[in-house]
Amino acid sequence: MAITQREIVGLKPKRDSFYVWDDDRSRGTGRLGVKVYPKGRKSFVYRYFKEGKRVFISIGDFPTVSLVDARERIRKFADMLKQGLDPKAELERRERQKQKDFEEQQAKGSIEALFKSYVSQMEKDGKRTHQSVYRALEKEVYPFIPPETKACDVTTKELTAVLSSMIQRGAETQSNRVRSYLHAAFNHGLYHDNDPANYLNHDKFALSYNPVSQIKKQKSAERVGQRFLSYPELREFMHDIEHEIEGVRASPVMRALLLLCIHTGGQRPYELAASKWEAINWEEKTLLVVADVSKNKRDHLLPLTDTAMDLFRQIKSYSEGNPYIFPHTRDLSKHIRLDSLSQVIARYREDHPHFEHFIPRDLRRTCKTLMGEIGISKELRDRIQNHAMNDVSSKHYDRYDYLSEKRRALEAWEVRLLGVDQDDSNVVPLRG
């Protein structure tokens, strides 16, 4: 007969443990029972037979588990028997799977691990912006998404909130930058798990899609720069920098860096700042921007004019004994920080309100434009400024350094910068 709740309550302990079975008159589905211990404890058990042997599964103690609950719990065991499964073995298998799933979930990389992995790859690839990218991701993302959040659990909605906050505070352009960093980081994560180089790594990101792909870029914030200094503006700026007039507020080394960027035809400040003294050939009057420093990862041989050579000689006394031409003021194992360059330009604009707004990058555009005005071909200007030449011939076959052509062009540019009237002899066509 089926046992009742009242009967279970009335069961009295004996000297030895004993069982009372709930008989629902079904066969081949196991049976629910109550085990009564000598000290009065009562516990529900499920019993079935496997190969003639009794197998028990503990259900829970009475009355914490009621009779109704116990009957409900054993139904799944009865169903397993009907399907030809061993309930106890199946429970153990499911527990192992549960533990495995838990361990796999724990092993899934966090968004912090994703960012670090992505930035580490940037550093391996020689991307000099890797530190600033990581700082931007930390600053903008973590206030909205905790760093321990699994990367695969991050949603498009959460990332949209990050970028929306930036737009609301007026940082539209920077929001596009952070969007591109996020997109690249999640793309990195998509391929990370299947990269043989990462096969033994602990972190697996388990990404199935890039949550940034559907987030719209703010096109209105991406305006191609148009500003360049006119020749009179450039001459005034160079005069103020060179002669240290009141209101410039820049160190001698920073002044020299600005002037060298201009006298070398608009070189990237980083490529000059990160170069070492060993890169200068004083006899040949050249500077070799090595591949590790160059943005396009190719050596760039740059001829130096007399003025550029004089500037290098002047600043040599400030970095005596240091490998860098432009050493860091406090950490002599590093080169100068380039945010100082932006600060110098910002202070100069504050003290010269008649100047139309410009930024350091506009100086490179200025050189490119004004050199064109004196007849230097675009291709030669590109080579002087170390732009990547993407045509097949330049990428794979042309290994000529165009040193003499670049020297003639920079000498013509020097004449213009020094205010000397130029004639047709200063027009420099590209070598055919």
From TrEMBL:
GO molecular function: DNA binding
Keyword DNA-binding: yes
UniProt-listed CDD domains: INT_P4_C (cd00801)
Domain Tyr recombinase: 224-411
Keyword terms: DNA integration, DNA recombination, DNA-binding
SUPFAM superfamilies: DNA breaking-rejoining enzymes
Entries under Gene3D superfamilies matching the protein: 1.10.150.130, Integrase, DNA-binding domain, Intergrase catalytic core
Pfam family, one: Arm-DNA-bind_3
Protein's name according to its UniProt entry: Prophage CP4-57 integrase
